[in-house]
Specification:
Layout: E1 6-14, E2 20-29, E3 32-37, H1 44-52, E4 59-64, E5 68-71, H2 83-87, H3 90-100, H4 106-112, H5 118-128, H6 145-157, E6 163-167, H7 175-187, E7 191-195, H8 199-202, E8 207-212, E9 215-220, H9 223-275
Helix pairs in contact: 3-4
């Protein structure tokens, strides 16, 4: 997954009422953990949906190398689904069960493909996220909000994605579940682009992408390092403003002094002319 790349080229998007969100936005994100930060309403979730293909850009293009996984902030799931259905493994498990029962129809082997170990991989992924006790036929309606979020993440990870988009993945998670998620993401070796307000999770990132007025700026290091960089930039900017203000005051003072000297010379010239 070290070659995983996400690229947006001259990406533009506007809402149906022609309100612009992005215009000619271009950037590349490679392998590693990137946290996407911006004020609320700046378009973070919209950008992830554009990358995932859930929204169509008005111009430009999105290129994703390999398999894409996307965990949106609001999961489009219904309570009647089973754990296996949410994970997307139900059809493969049924096909394996059929083959093991003696049904060797070609369609079962087509469904299984290379996923003969799907149940073991599923169990391992659920265990990592603290969901190992869940039966695969359990209904979603019996799970907590935090369990559903973790289950949604497990579903994306089971795809073995090269590029993974996560939108507020710690919503509804307790401290233990957040810790497990952080560990899972730390071990992830692909291209991760994460939207979150979780300071602790953002400090697990390797770089921070700041979305500001339709432009993306990258900062090396985690969120704490990003804050320090922004604070230093603000201090420099404030110092430059103070220096500019002082320079302006000096120039105004010198201008006033020049006017006063000119006035005195004019007054002296007038008196000299009168006395001549």
């Amino acid at each position: 997954m070290s070659d995983a790349v996400l690229r947006c080229s001259q990406l533009s998007f506007s809402w149906p009422d022609d309100t612009p969100v992005f215009e000619d936005l271009s950037f590349t994100v490679g392998a590693g953990r990137t946290g996407l930060v911006a004020p609320n309403g700046a378009g973070k979730s919209t950008l992830l949906k554009l990358i995932a293909g859930e929204l169509r850009p008005t111009a430009g293009s999105v290129t994703v190398s390999g398999v894409l996984g996307h965990l949106p902030q609001t999961l489009p799931l219904t309570g009647g689904l089973t754990v296996a259905e949410v994970l997307g493994v139900d059809a493969v498990i049924r096909a394996i069960d059929a083959v093991e029962s003696g049904d060797v129809a070609e369609e079962h082997f087509t469904t299984i493909g290379d996923d003969w170990d799907i149940e073991e991989r599923t169990r391992a992924q659920l265990d990592r996220l603290g969901l190992g006790h869940l039966a695969l036929d359990r209904r979603l309606s019996t799970l907590s909000g935090g369990q559903i979020v973790s289950l949604g993440l497990a579903a994306q990870l089971l795809k073995r994605p090269d590029v993974l988009l996560l939108d507020e993945p710690t919503n509804n998670l307790d401290a233990d579940a957040r810790g497990r998620l952080q560990d899972v993401l730390t071990d992830y070796s692909g291209c991760l682009l994460l939207v979150s307000h979780d300071r602790e999770l953002l400090d697990r990132m390797e770089r921070i992408a700041e979305l500001d007025r339709g432009e993306l700026r990258f900062h090396g290091g985690n969120f704490t390092a990003y804050e320090e960089t922004v604070r230093a930039e603000q201090e420099v900017a404030e110092k430059n403003v103070r220096n500019a203000e002082q320079e302006l005051k000096r120039e105004k003072r010198e201008l006033q002094q020049a006017r006063e000297r000119a006035d005195r010379r004019a007054s002296n010239a007038a008196r000299n002319l009168k006395n001549a």
